[in-house]
Design a protein that fits this description.
122 residues
């Protein structure tokens, strides 16, 4: 594994998702790992598409496929599929939640008497 590429553990999660997408689209899935590594290499280094190393494929093919996946929202579906919810932010331990002493409430004011219809008419 090189510096800006997916590890075997990461690819084990992402690979089946990409294979399912490529079967549905009728494309070949053999190049998926090379393509993802090319995109990651470009994003992590900040280089233009034209400076993509030859070992990662033709820069124009990678750039066009990246744009095509963006138009078809493939990236969005992949990110949603691999995203794990951060339950630490969702769960609240009730033993740690305490109200401020002044949050007990304001003393209720006596209700204002309503004027009767007879008093208004007279």
């Amino acid at each position: 594994m090189r510096r800006h590429e997916l590890s075997a553990r990461e690819w084990a999660v992402l690979g089946p998702l990409l294979d399912a997408h490529c079967r549905k689209q009728g494309g070949a899935s053999e190049e998926n790992q090379l393509f993802i590594n090319a995109v990651l290499w470009r994003i992590r280094t900040g280089i233009p598409w034209r400076d993509l190393p030859e070992r990662l494929g033709k820069w124009n093919s990678v750039a066009r496929r990246f744009a095509r996946w963006a138009r078809k929202k493939v990236w969005h579906r992949l990110f949603r599929a691999i995203q794990e919810p951060d339950w630490e932010w969702v769960l609240v331990d009730s033993t740690a939640v305490k109200a401020h002493p002044q949050a007990a409430g304001q003393k209720k004011a006596a209700p204002r008497p309503k004027r009767s219809a007879a008093a208004v008419a007279g």
